[in-house]
Design brief:
Layout lengths: L6 E3 L2 E3 L2 E3 L2 E3 L2 E3 L2 E3 L2 E3 L2 E3 L2 E3 L2 E3 L2 E3 L2 E3 L2 E3 L2 E3 L2 E3 L8 E3 L2 E3 L17 E3 L76
Parallel strand pairs: 1-5, 2-6, 3-7, 4-8, 5-9, 6-10, 7-11, 8-12, 9-13, 10-14, 11-15, 13-16, 14-17, 17-18
Length: 191
Amino acid sequence: MTFSEESYYQADFSGLSLADETIKSIIFEECTFRDCTFISTRFENCRFSACKFTDCALSAVIPLNCRIIGISFTGCKLMGIDWTRTQKTEDLSFKNCHLDYSNFGFMKLPNIIMSECEVKDVDFTESNFSNGDFKNTDFEKSRFLKTNLTGADFKGARNYAIDPRANTLKKTRFSYPEVIVLLNNLDIIIE
């Protein structure tokens, strides 16, 4: 299926499946996507505003020059997405999602929600995720370097490797015993 309209407002898409297609210059406002599959789909110059994605699979999607604002993902698999290719991205919410092998490097996404997610092998280098909600998320093999995590909430998060000397951690919340890994990069001995 290809999209026949230039814009969609409050449209519901259910069971939609697109693979290896290019979607250009389409506007989606307050749309709902349920059980949709986008595999290696290329979105060029599209705009997604206040849309909801539930139980969708978005693997190797290319969001080239897209505007993605106020979007929520629940129970979705968003694998291998380079979010840095968007034109503008803000107000993202991921709940109970898989975001493995993605790139958020050099992005400014304060107040992002990424709770109860699997976020393995993801790049957060030199990004601003201040006041983000990362509760109960698995960050195995993810990279944090010069990342602003001021006021972020990592309670219940696990498998993160965050060097407190190479990241901004002011008033960042962690829970015990996982918080002990913050000491791994320090030249100290704990007995």
